[in-house]
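Sample intake sheet
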Amino acid sequence: MALRCAAPGRVRWLARALAGSARLLPPATAAPGPPSPARTRPPQLGVRFASSAGSGTEGPQRRVMVVRITSPFAWLRTRFYYLLIRLYFDQEFSIEEFTRGAKQAFSVVSKLLSQRKLDLLEELVSAEVLQVLKEKISLLPDSHRDALAADIDAIMYTTEGDVRIYYDDDGRKFVSILMCFWYLNGANLPDEVPGEAKVFQIVFGDENTKEKKHLLTANYEFQREFTEGAKPDWTITRIEHPRLLE
C-alpha cells in the first residue's frame, strides 16, 4: 500500500488504523519510563526466495518463505505478558490487532524518515526519540535514507522482540512492546552495508532481467501508559535501523 504523507489528516488516519488496542499517543502526554533493562535480541531468521508464474496474472510472482528460529522460553514469556495485559490492563488487547497496526505505523514512519518529513512525526514519536532522529537524518547519505522506507507490501516478516510491564517512581503503569520488522528495499546500497542482512537477487523471466533487493531489519518500540485516566494510546519510543540509522 503506497502512502503519501503530507498533512495532519495522515496522522488521524494512522491513529484510526491503530484504534482500540493499538493507537498512537502524542508525545506531549507520554511519560518516559525508567532506564530500560537489557533487551532480548530479536530472533534470527532464515529466508529463502523463489519465483513462479502465477495463474491469472502477468509475469512471475515472488514467493517468500521465512523460517523463524526462537526459543520456547521467549515465546512463553511474551504470551504470559499478553495474558497479564488482558487480565490487569486491557481486556480487549489483541496481539494480532496490535501487530497489524504496528506494521502500518512502521511503514508510515519509515517513509516519513526517508523523506525527511520529521515535522509530521511529532504526534507519532516521543519527543526524545524525535530529537535524536533529527540529528541523525541530517547526516545520512541519500542511499541510506532511501533504504529506511518500507512499503507495507514489502514487509516480509514481523514479530515481537520484547514485552515489558513496569511502573515509574510516581506509580504510573506502562507497557512497552518491541516489534521487529524484516523488509525488502531496492535502495542502491553496497552489499556489505546492511551488516547481518543479506542481499538477494531475484530473477524474473530470463537471466538478463534481474531485480536486486536488500533484506533489511528495523526495531520499533511502542509504549502505552495504563494509569487510570491516561489516554488509551501508543507512542513510538525507540527506532532502530541497524547499520543504516546509527
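Comment: Confidence is low (pLDDT under 50) at residues 1-60. The longest strand covers residues 210-225.
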